[in-house]
Hints:
By secondary structure, this protein is an alpha+beta fold.
Amino acid sequence: MLPTKLTLEVVTPEREVARGDVDFIQMPGLDGYLGVLPGHAPLLTELGAGVLSYRSNNVEHFAAVVGGFAEVLGDRVIVLAEAAELGESIDVIRAQAAQERALKILQQKAEQVDFHAAQSALERSLVRIEAAKLAGQGVAGMKHRPRGMAAGQPHDEETPASAAEKK
């Protein structure tokens, strides 16, 4: 008999970020997003940077995840992330400041820039902003994906900022 729920554990080297029974998980793999339902075949996968989403009792939750591994079993998913933060816990102003700093560094002359570190910092900041946005924290000037839509799915919702960009 297949399980009806998954136990999700999201941990970093510093702390446990999330734990609980969930109906569905979507996580960022290196080559795209991976959806997991109860009874999924066992696997071990490397994670990329992106938004991990999960649904519990018809409520969607979001977390920014950067790197690490996930172990999927039929009734459990363990995410061992290099960094992870729940969307509702993210300081959006700090994430936007980190994005601006990374962009400034990337615009400098090539010999003065640790390109890999700056690119990683930019990617982390963008993932954090996206997770915060999905968790319901408004971010000025950004397109918002409708709640309930999985990360990575296209959307065509228009915001005042996106309408202004078209003009």
